[in-house]
Amino acid sequence: MLVGISGLIATFCEAFWAAVHRALLNFVDESERVAYSNLWIVGTSLALGATPILAGLFIEWWGLWGYRICFVLAGVTGLACALASEWVVDD
Q1: Distance between CA 29 and CA 33 in Å, rounded?
Q2: What is the distance between the alpha carbons of residues 89 and 14, in angstroms, rounded to a whole number?
Q3: Helix residue spans in the chain (DSSP H)
């Protein structure tokens, strides 16, 4: 049952992200879509690849304090991005 639920979650999550990325491409000028897509893929790959490595290094070096630092950084960054979206994102 857990495998089935995980499969459904993954399917709907991927459908959601496909719709989000399609909507984002509609905001970009057609002449700049290739450059935007390239920057998006490289930036996302670096962020998703480097974050767990850096978090692991912080936690390994500083133990529980490293975990706390990572937790606080994630929270502050998330709140900052949520507040910044009020000014950056159009209706």
Answers
A1: 6
A2: 23
A3: 2-27, 33-62, 64-88
> What pTM did the predictor assign?
0.60
- Which tokens in the block code for residue 84? 């910044």
Q: How many CB atoms lie within 10 A of CB 40?
A: 14
User: What tokens appear for 34 in the block?
Assistant: 């290739």
pLDDT digits (tens, 9 = 90+) for 6-35: 999 999 998 998 888 888 888 888 898 899
**Residue 52 structure tokens:** 């767990």
Residue 71 confidence (pLDDT) above 80: yes
SS3 63: coil
**Of 25, 60, 51, the residue nearest 40 (C-alpha):** 25
Does residue 91 carry a pLDDT above 80?
no
